[in-house]
Amino acid sequence: MYPRLSDTIAQLKWDQFAGEERKAASQLLIDFIQQKVTAGQPVNLNFICTHNSRRSHLAQVWAQTAATYFKIPYVCCYSGGTEETALFPQVAETLTAQGFQIFTIAEGDNPVYAIKHSDNAVPMIGFSKKYDSPFNPSTEFAAIMTCSQADGGCPFIAGADKRIPLPFEDPKVSDGTPQQTQVYEQRSLQIATAMFYVFHTIRL
User: Fold this and answer.
1) Where does the record locate the signal sequence feature (predicted)?
2) Is 0.90 surpassed by the pTM of this model?
3) Superfamily grouping for domain 3-200
4) Computed over its alpha carbons, how large is the radius of gyration of the chain?
5) CA 122 to CA 132: how far, in whole Å?
6) Where are the domains of the chain?
7) Which residues pair with 115 in a beta bridge?
8) In this predicted model, what pLDDT tens digit does every residue of 152-183 receive, in sequence order?
C-alpha cells in the first residue's frame, strides 16, 4: 500500500463498527464472501447505486483494497448503476487525498480512471456504467445495493447469487457547498470502515 493510504487505513476503526442494523446487513455480505472463500471459489462483488458516480465507486475501491489488505484471494470488485452518468470528480479527488494513485485513461463525458493502492497492484478501473454492463460479471456475484433508490428500483438483479442492501447517505447533498470536501472525505471513510469490517472477519 502507498504510505499515505496506509496512514488512512491506520485511522479506520473497523473493530468498533457501530450500528446493529448495519452489522446485520454486513453479515449477509460476510456470509457470501466466507462461503465463496471456504469453497475456493472466486468472490465477485458488484456495488450498485443509481448513477454509478459516487457511493458505488467508493465501495468498489475500498472493498478491493480491504481484500488485498487482509490477503483474501480471488476477490474482484465491480460497480454499476441503474443508469450511466460519470464518476463525479470529487470522488477521484477524495481517493487521491486519502492515498490512492489515480490516472485518467480516457477523457470525455464519461472518463475512465485507473485506480491503484500500490505500485504493483492491478489497477481498479473506474467509470460509470449500468450494473449489467458487459464489463461486470453476469453470473455468480453478489449485488450490493449502496443506495436506497437503487435498492427500491431494482428488486431483482439478473445473474446475482445474492442481493444485499447496504445503503450509505449520498455525499451529493454537499455538492457546491463549503462542506463538499469534508462530506466526501467522511463518506469515503465510512464506506472504507464498513468494507474493512467485512473483510477482517473472513477466515482463510
Assistant:
1) none
2) yes
3) Response regulator (3.40.50.2300)
4) 16
5) 23
6) 3-200
7) 102, 124
8) 777 689 999 999 999 999 999 999 999 999 99
